[in-house]
Amino acid sequence: MNSFIDLLNILLPFLYLLTFVIYSYNFMKGDKTFFNSKRLFLFLTLLLHSIYLILRVIEFKHPPITNVFEILTVLAFSVSFAYFILELHTDIRGTGPFIIIISLIFQIISSLFIEDLIEVKEVLRSNLLGLHVFSALIGYAGITMSAIYGILYLILYKEIKFNKFGLIFNRLPSLEILERLSFYSAIIGFVLMSVAILIGIIWLPKAFPDFSYTDPKLIGTFLVWIVYGIGIISKIFGKWQGKRVVAFSIIGFFIAILSTALTNFLAQSFHSFY
């Protein structure tokens, strides 16, 4: 099994690269070539990636969250999986290159440096912990996508404002659709972050003797969750539209990045076993 895991580890960056190239070709050419098959390529890549992650769990007897390079491969999967769900829901396929390239970068780094750890702390073998982390990572993938769609919205808005009707104008969806994609991505992120927080509240106090609700990472996560909750509620009740919605998605993303950076590098946390 180990040799098959190694094979998939080598294969995955090429699969993401091929998927990215197909989506990019379709974006640049604007014709129907690969219009339907590119989703199939993405599905097959995600299928093999999920098999790879499951096999790692079986072989090494712990979820793939024990080091940064294992987390990067889960992030690569999470970003493309969140995009795949969004594409299925909306049937809008023209923004794939801007999302899949993130998975490609994460997976290349992971495949180059990942370690096969057998001896790990007992807590890292918990499937509940794996579900907690996996939900959180898909949640952050959702808010990352929301920010990307927000940036694309602003780029297209600028193109229209200055009457530049080139490739970006011709290939990207309308401003209304980009706003909707940003909002839907934020909902995906918010829901999965909610799942991660719920699991954390129930299970983490039992797993860690030094658990505290004043833990910096918990406070940072709650802050991001509240920011996105306020934004989603404001959008649903019609208070926010257009540029305000995408500005919220971008600002929320940078709050998440800043919160993660500060709590990881400047604060002590029971999460430090990662």
Task: Please summarize what this structure is.
The protein has helices spanning 2-29, 37-60, 68-90, 96-113, 127-161, 167-171, 175-207, 216-236, 243-265. The chain is mostly helical.
Could you walk me through the main structural features you see in this protein, from its secondary elements to its overall organization?
- This protein has 274 residues and is an all-alpha fold.
- Helices cover 77% and strands 0% of the residues.
- Helix 1 runs antiparallel to helix 4 (96-113).
- The protein starts with a helix and ends in a 9-residue tail after the last helix.
Order of helices and strands: HHHHHHHHH
The largest β sheet comes out as: none
Strand coverage percent: under 5%
Classified by CATH, the class of the largest domain is: Mainly Alpha
What fold name stands as the CATH topology of the largest domain?
Four Helix Bundle (Hemerythrin (Met), subunit A)
Instruction: Please state the structural category.
Output: mainly alpha
Number-wise, the strands total: 0
- Poorly predicted runs are none
Helix content: over 70%
Quote the distance from N terminus to C terminus: 26 Å
The domain tally reads: 2
CATH architecture of the largest domain: Up-down Bundle
Gross morphology: flat
Mean pLDDT: 83
Number of helices: 9
